[in-house]
Structure formats: C-alpha cells, structure tokens
C-alpha cells in the first residue's frame, strides 16, 4: 500500500509535500481523475467532481501560501471573463446576462486541471484516462445502433390517432410521457391509462413531441390495429448522441477526443522499442502500456470515427478532418501525410454517402433547412452588430434576445424557432461585443503559441509529451473550425472537455524539470 501511495504521489507531483497540503493535493488529484473520467459521459458527475476538486485546490493554495504565476494566457483568459461581466452590466437584460456568467466561468476548468498537473507524466496519464473512459460510449454507440430503439411505424391510416397527431410513415416513437417505448403495446397501455399521452418521436434530423389522444383509438384486436398502422420495427437510423442529450454535443466531444487519440497514435509511430520496455513493474506503467499501445488507440480512433459518422454532424466531422491534417503536418512525417490522404479519400466519400442516406442532404447543401436557419441567424447577428456603436462595443447582452427578439425582428419575425447564432465568433461578437471576440482569439493564440513551442522542444525527445501536444493542438484547431458554424463554446459539456484537453497540452508543454523526471515521463506507458 505504501508503495502505491508513493507512486501516486510521484504521479501527482506531491512527493515533496507533507501534512495538510499533501492530503489536499491528493484529494484534488483524485477529483481531477474523476472529472476526466466523467467528462465524456455526464455533465452532472463532471461538475460535481470539478466543484469538490476546486475546493480542495483552493484550500491547498491557502494552506501552502502559494500564489499562481501569472502569464499572458492568464491575462487573456481573465480579460475575456472580465469583458463578459462588463457586457452583462450594460446588457438590455442585465439579470439574464449576468446569470449566464456561470457558463462563461467554465474556463476555470482549465485552471483546476493545470494547477493539479504538476508534471508531463500526469498530463499523459490523464490524456490516456480520458481516451479509456470515452471508449465506453464508443463501444456502446454501434451496439446501440445494432440493437435499435423505439417503434418505427409504417402504413399509418389517415383516421388513426397517430395520423391525427401529425405523425408520418417512418417516424420512430421513442417515449410516452417520459417512459421509453419498446413495442406498440407500451404506447397502447399508456393510452388506456390516460386520456392523452405526450409522445416523443424522431423524424430524420430532429426530435419532437406530439399529443396522442386515447379517444382516437380504433377498434381492433392488436395494438397495431388500435393505433392505426400496418407494421413496425426497431429503428436503426438516428443521429447518435452517446450518453448526452443531443447529437451535436456528442459530435463536438467526439472530435476533440478523436484529435487527442490521433495525436497519441502519430507520436507512437517510429517510437523506439527500448522506451516501451522500461519500468515494467510500475502500476502506472502497466496502465500506460496497455491503453496507450498503438493497437488500442487505433481501435479507439476507429470507433470514434464511426460514432462521429453516426452523429451525421457535418461541422464536427469537418473539424476533425482539419484537426487530423494539422496533426500530420505538425508531426513533419511525410510518409504519414501521403498515407493520410490515401485513407482520407474513401473515408470522405463514404461519409458523404452516409450523410445523404441518413439526412438526404449534401455536405454543403443550400437547400438544407439547418443551413438556411444558420444563414438567417448570421444575417440577424450582423444586422444587430452594426446597428449601433453600443452593440459593437459591449453587444446586446447574453440571451437578451429572449425578451427583445420581436422588436429586433429576429427569427424571421417569429416564423422560425428561437435558437442561438450557430457560430462561436458571431455569438461572442453580437452578445458581448467585438472586443470579446478579440479577447477569445487572444486566448486561442496564446494556447497555440504554447503548443508550438512545446512541440519544438519535445520533437524527437519524448513521444508521450509530443503525442499529448499533437492531440491538444489538433483539438484546438478542430474546435475552432467547427465553432465557425457551431456555438460549441456555449455547450457546457463540450467546453469542459475542451478546457481539460487544453490543460493537458499546456502541462505537456512544460519542459521536464530534471533528468530523472524526463526518464519517468518517457517511460510512463
């Protein structure tokens, strides 16, 4: 037991600590591990671990009388938050906008992680832990698709209760008053108990809820006859969402983790065999050898790409492709670049075909309703932004359009559903002013500069450090790319995964302190 604790303390960078500072550091490190493991699955568990770990981290700073070192990245991050506060104060709806600061403060996830990642070895360990944890939903996604879900109905009669609820052939009935539907009998039983039932259904590209009335049931001996359709089956066609509540959230998380995996794989290529055989007896070394091996990472990447394909989310797919290209270019491996292009061509064509079959749209389809909606929101955003100097400076305020959309003529004057601007740059500029967008770009620039410097230093010296930096660089580029058409920074689940991976990268960019530390980092697998 004492040997395990000693190894744990070395991994956590606490082997020189003592007393309450040591125990608080251990507590924070454990909660960071729980947060990293939960991030690809559950926002509730992730936030609980973050909150508890942050309390332990702050308490440790107080006990140890330590003060964090301030860098340019810190100035950019806190200026970004500060301008959000200013924008909230000058918002058209200050109460609503200031309440949204909870979402803006998610950047503190980065600081919780970076303050507890005291060496490169820990950064690599947590990067692998995130991949291993994410593999759970990566395996479940194709299994779930094979099993199927809900009740996909065909041959709906015009006078049936389903037709009167405006359901069509091919719709998949998912839930009745919040309870999952496995067979038509489940819906019939619910209708016999209540005069009306709220039914959640899936129609390619969206989920919606309608009301089905029991008074509209037809005579018949079977559930199909009484509900008024001829046949049904389990649906095998939907936009996968993992353990999240939305496919776009899942897709954005997947492209971040996929970039991290790909970076680790690329760094493993050409790695010296003697590096892989050092420190065989270490528990953490065995963990790394098993789950950071190229075969495991390749399998995880294949499943991540498959799951990303099943989300049928074009921006996230494009984000990962750009991230993968950047990772290959940063690796400076010419043969890998050629191989990547050879593999990418059939993969891209296969993805386009699957997209067309699943959503009946092309990758850049001007007739697609989701693209039309984005274009409408971008026009509204541009009009609001240039409408007055106040909007350019501090924006209209976060979520203030909820009460002012009519006077601002938004959402096609009410003919379109209320949503957001579907673009991180547009959302930041319109809601918080052009300076906020500049400050966010400064954050991204500082992160990119740190990663590039770290890559130059780690190239050819430390495969693990190099892999984490490649993965973090790809995640940064992919997140920025998909953010052009997704408000991914405003998605709490995605933002937390993003800030965690950024912390892995910044921690890996630090040069090893001693020769002994370098050896430990090089053999952490």
How does this model look, in words?
With 525 residues, the chain is of the alpha+beta class. It has 26 helices and six strands. Strands 1, 2, 3, 4, 5 and 6 form a six-stranded antiparallel β-sheet that branches. The protein starts with a helix and ends with a helix.
Any chance you could write out the topology, listing elements then pairs?
Elements: H1 2-12, H2 19-38, H3 43-64, H4 72-89, H5 94-99, H6 101-104, H7 108-116, H8 120-147, E1 149-154, H9 161-164, E2 172-176, E3 179-180, H10 184-193, E4 196-203, E5 206-213, H11 223-227, E6 231-235, H12 247-268, H13 273-276, H14 283-291, H15 294-311, H16 314-331, H17 334-359, H18 369-385, H19 389-394, H20 401-404, H21 411-414, H22 424-432, H23 434-458, H24 463-482, H25 492-509, H26 515-522
Features:
single chain; 525 residues; alpha+beta; 26 helices; 6 strands; disordered C terminus
